[in-house]
Write a structure and sequence with these properties.
This protein is α/β, with parallel strands linked by helices. It has two domains: 133 residues, Periplasmic binding protein-like II (D-Maltodextrin-Binding Protein, domain 2, 3-Layer(aba) Sandwich); 95 residues, D-Maltodextrin-Binding Protein, domain 2 (3-Layer(aba) Sandwich), CATH 3.40.190. It contains ten helices and eleven strands. Strands 1, 4, 5, 6, 7, 8, 9, 10 and 11 form a nine-stranded mixed beta sheet that branches. A hairpin with a 5-residue loop joins β2 and β3. The longest helix is centred in the first third of the chain and has 27 residues. The chain is globular and about 55 Å long.
Length: 289
């Protein structure tokens, strides 16, 4: 009888210990999370979008306090006066736009063939230099609306001008063009070879010195820089190869392009754009806004 009672007490003790252990396990087991059972997250727990907001180019320029303007030596658009200050139709407009933005204009000479790289690398903020709106330009830059008409013309020495009155007559000539320019593209379109040089002013020098037979440059530059009363009175222009329009280029997606278009609309409406154009003799090329 005693043995049976002792055996019964031992059995009860084991059952109590098992129950206690089971209780501890329930108390310490981690609660199921939403991820454990694939429950949907609450809206407040949803991850925020990591996509960055588009940077404002306008704010960038105003924050640093300067508008860096990429140019080449190009009379009557951008050139230096006797004191070394940059003047010209584009230079004066660019200076007025910088004032409108509340920043200082800084003119920077660039290699025209590298203008897109300069812009994207932020060494300049805008290309403002009688730039033709080609497919390459409009696909790589955020451009203004056209503001001036232009053409590509052939420049030769005046004493041989009668020999070069057609595009076909240019075959076989050594033709100087600005690298990366609309003039270079026009010669390539004809299937002729050309000699790329730094800028259009250099192309004129090549013809005047006799190292090239002809040059292809912008008609606005030709009207200002060659012929009677200029430094190149021995040169003249003959064949017109293309007609085109000028635009002003910013970084792709830049909000400065829309800001400039609104500014130029105001300048045209109040007559100040026409006044600047008359100063440099390009009023006939202005595009009505």
């Amino acid at each position: 009888m005693k043995k049976k009672l002792a055996l019964l007490l031992a059995l009860c003790l084991c059952l109590c210990m098992f129950a206690a252990c089971g209780g501890d396990a329930e108390e310490t087991a981690p609660a199921n999370t939403a991820s454990d059972v694939n429950l949907p997250l609450e809206e407040s727990d949803a991850p925020e979008s990591s996509e960055p907001e588009a940077e404002s180019d306008l704010a960038y320029v105003q924050d640093k306090g300067t508008l860096i303007i990429g140019i080449t030596e190009f009379d009557p658009m951008d050139y230096r006066d006797e004191s070394g200050e940059w003047i010209g139709f584009d230079a004066d407009l660019a200076r007025a736009f910088a004032e409108h933005l509340g920043v200082e204009p800084q003119f920077q000479l660039i290699d025209w063939d590298s203008k897109i790289l300069e812009l994207d690398g932020k060494t300049i903020d805008v290309v403002w230099n009688g730039m033709t709106l080609t497919d390459e330009v409009t696909s790589a830059m955020e451009c203004s609306e056209p503001y001036l008409n232009n053409a590509q013309v052939v420049v030769v020495k005046a004493d041989v001008a009668d020999q070069y009155q057609t595009a076909e007559s240019l075959a076989g000539l050594n033709i100087a063009v600005e690298a990366g320019s609309a003039g270079e593209a026009a010669i390539a379109e004809l299937g002729y070879t050309s000699t790329p040089v730094l800028d259009q002013a250099t192309a004129l020098l090549e013809v005047s010195s006799g190292t090239c037979d002809a040059a292809v440059i912008d008609s606005l530059m030709a009207a200002a820089m060659i012929g009677e009363g200029t430094s190149y009175d021995d040169l003249t222009y003959t064949v017109g190869l293309t007609t085109e329009e000028y635009g002003i280029g910013f970084r792709k997606g830049s909000d400065l392009a829309a800001e400039l278009d609104a500014f130029l609309d105001e300048c045209y409406a109040d007559g100040s754009m026409q006044t600047i154009a008359e100063t440099y003799g390009v009023q006939a090329a202005l595009i009505e806004r």
